[in-house]
């Protein structure tokens, strides 16, 4: 395992050496922006390190309410709620919807936070092959008579693929199902305003779709959030033991999330910068002859022929001052992946160094 000796922006330090950082999920390059850091420091000075109380007792501060208002506005929804971990958002939504479905249908590569979030009392859980809409329809037919909740990642963390939410939605309408989308990697990235997979497919007004999101990736902050109707948000607040009985999000993180949303609103060019960096890398990879995913997303995997080859590539990149890990968790993809992620902040020199290095490796392999 790599041990970092600095933060992670375009570069990181390991063993006293600076590396180009093409890993993690800092898709908009926000984690070391002074605009965010200064707000975090100001909140630490004003509020201290922690509220040390749950949201339902004495742990709700004005900055939580302000952030939730900003998130609701960002999402174009009536209300939003923040909590300590994006991992728990799927659970909160599935618990809230509990009376409205009796079957859960999962993409076979659904993130562990979706699987862990399924309420214990759900009797039927079934899986369709990754992105396979025919199999999903077969399952919907198989369980006709029971109402299904279809659950999938919006943007898959390892492969960079976007789930076909338009087709899932068409099937959900046909079979009267509900949909849960884990948009941890899509928030700030997909859709015209960065509102995620639902916006990307122009399905923002569908009452069937529920999104679980996080501030921990593209937004450069930390903590999960859910946005929706007033009714839904206040029901989740009342119903969730986790929300009611765990410590509220600490001041520095609340302030960072709020600053990230303001920064996004003021820097509308960030998304186009990201897209142009993604295009450069994905087109470059294809020209070299590397296998990657087609979707225009910041996750640019190199699909290798074995885990050993993936490890060799990751090591070769590191020898050339590039960090991009060979990954085989948290879901089994059946592929051997070196996960390269591109951010809006990477420079032209860094991108061309990446592509040149991949080319040298590929030439040596062939
Ligand atoms: C698809 C997906 N959902 C949820 C999470 C959890 O989000 P957080 O790290 O904000 O808890 C992650 C990864 O961290 C993820 O990849």
UniProtKB/TrEMBL annotation:
Keyword entries, A-Z: Pyridoxal phosphate, Transferase
Single Gene Ontology MF annotation: transferase activity
UniProt domain Aminotransferase class I/classII large: residue ranges: 23-357
Pathway: Lipid metabolism
PROSITE patterns documented for this protein: AA_TRANSFER_CLASS_2 (PS00599)
InterPro entries: Aminotrans_II_pyridoxalP_BS, Aminotransferase_I/II_large, AON_synthase_class-II, PyrdxlP-dep_Trfase, PyrdxlP-dep_Trfase_major, PyrdxlP-dep_Trfase_small
Cofactor(s) the protein needs: pyridoxal 5'-phosphate
Keyword ATP-binding listed: no
Statement: the UniProt record of this protein carries the keyword Ribosomal protein: no
Family note: Belongs to the class-II pyridoxal-phosphate-dependent aminotransferase family.
Name of this chain's protein: Glycine C-acetyltransferase
Native species: Mangrovibacterium diazotrophicum
């Amino acid at each position: 395992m790599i041990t970092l000796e600095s933060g992670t922006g375009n570069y990181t330090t390991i063993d006293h050496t600076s590396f180009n950082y093409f890993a993690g999920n800092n898709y908009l390059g926000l984690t070391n922006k002074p605009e965010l850091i200064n707000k975090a420091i100001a909140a630490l000075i004003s509020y201290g390190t922690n509220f040390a109380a749950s949201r339902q007792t004495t742990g709700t501060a004005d900055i939580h309410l302000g952030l939730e208002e900003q998130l609701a506005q960002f999402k174009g929804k009536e209300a939003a709620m923040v909590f300590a971990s994006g991992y728990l958002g799927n659970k909160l939504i599935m618990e809230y919807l509990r009376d409205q479905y009796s079957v859960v249908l999962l993409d076979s590569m659904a993130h562990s936070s979706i699987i862990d979030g399924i309420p214990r009392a759900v009797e039927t859980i079934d899986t369709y092959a990754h992105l396979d809409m025919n199999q999903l329809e077969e399952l919907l037919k198989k369980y006709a008579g029971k109402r299904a909740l279809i659950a999938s990642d919006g943007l898959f963390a390892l492969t960079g693929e976007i789930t076909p939410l338009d087709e899932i939605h068409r099937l959900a309408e046909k079979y009267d199902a509900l949909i849960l989308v884990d948009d941890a990697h899509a928030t700030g990235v997909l859709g015209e305003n960065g509102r995620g997979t639902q916006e990307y497919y122009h399905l923002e007004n569908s009452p069937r779709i529920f999104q679980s999101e996080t501030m921990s990736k593209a937004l450069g902050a930390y903590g999960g959030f859910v946005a929706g109707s007033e009714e839904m948000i206040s029901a989740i607040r009342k119903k969730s033991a986790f929300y009611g009985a765990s410590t509220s999000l600490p001041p520095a993180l609340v302030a960072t999330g709020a600053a990230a949303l303001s920064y996004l609103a003021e820097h509308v060019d960030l998304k186009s910068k990201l897209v142009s960096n993604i295009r450069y890398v994905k087109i470059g990879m294809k020209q070299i002859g590397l296998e990657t995913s087609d979707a225009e997303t910041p996750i640019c995997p190199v699909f290798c022929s074995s885990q050993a080859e993936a490890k060799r590539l990751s090591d070769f990149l590191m020898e050339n001052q590039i960090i991009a890990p060979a990954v085989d968790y948290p879901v089994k993809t059946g592929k051997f992946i070196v996960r390269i992620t591109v951010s809006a902040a990477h420079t032209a020199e860094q991108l061309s160094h990446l592509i040149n290095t991949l080319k040298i490796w590929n030439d040596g392999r062939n």
